[in-house]
Write a structure and sequence with these properties.
Radius of gyration of chain B: 18 Å
Number of helices of chain A: 4
Helix content of chain B: 55-70%
Strand content of chain A: under 5%
Shape of chain A: elongated
Number of helices of chain B: 9
Oligomer: heterodimer
Distance between the termini of chain B: 58 Å
Order of helices and strands of chain B: HHHHHHHHH
Distance between the termini of chain A: 63 Å
Structural class of chain A: mainly alpha
Number of strands of chain B: 0
Number of strands of chain A: 0
Largest sheet of chain B: none
């Protein structure tokens, strides 16, 4: 039993690489001591891996840049 | 002569750039936000074509009206996403045939990157489409943009604490959907 509170909601921004350095450090210390958060961290990291593999599927085509510049009146 | 470097400038400074630097300023704002804006639109707008139209129009409107941009009323990024939201709603009204799907996986999404697994791409697109809008939004912004927690909070108009908890729940929901689709 850990005397430290689990904060699983911090895991989301952590696996997405969005956490601030102090948040990261605090979470790393907690993960070293908490098996259930560690297990959740690994599960969420697997989701991120799948999302990252498919990220190009939702990336805009190169044509969008050209068409947008034209629409905005930006000279090439 | 001081070099004018758009990459070091704030969004608001870029919007207020003078005519000599306007094109470079626009390109920098586009570079910063078009990817998350497209992902955001793509996960809400249903089709690639609609998402592309939304991105073009949002940036075009921002730039055409930049002289009347008022920093007191909010940040540039939030304005872009608000315009995109409204354009998506307007577009859906015009396209409505009584059945609006939040997101349609198109094989064309993966056609531009043949090296990725088409099946994975379509599975992720399908799973994303089944999430609630708030969860889709945070994943779209986190994955397709370099936005910080603070910028995400700004764009989505929620507190930073909500960004934290929402990303957590979004990833858990994504995991459940992927499992349902046979991914794990």
């Amino acid at each position: 039993m850990t005397s430290e509170r689990c904060l699983p909601t911090l895991l989301g921004v952590h696996v997405l690489g969005l956490s601030a350095p102090d948040e990261r450090a605090a979470l790393r210390r907690h993960l070293a001591r908490c098996a259930s958060c560690r297990a959740e961290f690994l599960r969420l990291r697997d989701v991120v891996t799948v999302l990252a593999a498919a990220a190009p599927a939702l990336a805009p085509r190169a044509e969008v840049a050209r068409a947008t510049e034209a629409a905005a009146g930006v000279v090439g | 002569m001081i070099e004018w470097d758009p990459r070091t400038m704030t969004d608001e400074t870029l919007v207020e750039a003078d005519e000599a630097h306007a094109d470079d300023a626009f390109r920098e704002l586009f570079r910063r936000y078009h990817r998350p804006l497209y992902a955001f639109a793509r996960t809400r707008a249903g089709t690639r074509e609609h998402a592309e139209d939304v991105v073009q129009e949002a940036f075009a409107r921002l730039w055409r009206c930049r002289r009347s941009f008022d920093p007191e009323r909010g940040r540039v990024a939030a304005l872009l996403f608000t315009m995109a939201r409204n354009l998506i709603i307007d577009g859906q009204r015009r396209r409505a045939r009584g059945c609006s799907m939040p997101m349609v996986a198109e094989s064309a999404d993966t056609a531009t990157t043949p090296e990725i697994d088409v099946a994975t791409g379509m599975m992720v697109t399908a799973a994303l489409g089944r999430l609630r809008a708030g969860h889709r939004d945070v994943l779209a912004l986190a994955f397709w943009g370099d936005l910080s927690q603070g910028q995400m909070a700004d764009v989505l108009r929620v507190p930073v604490g909500t960004v934290k908890s929402r990303t957590f729940h979004a990833l858990r929901a994504m995991r459940a959907e992927l499992q349902l689709l046979g991914a794990g």
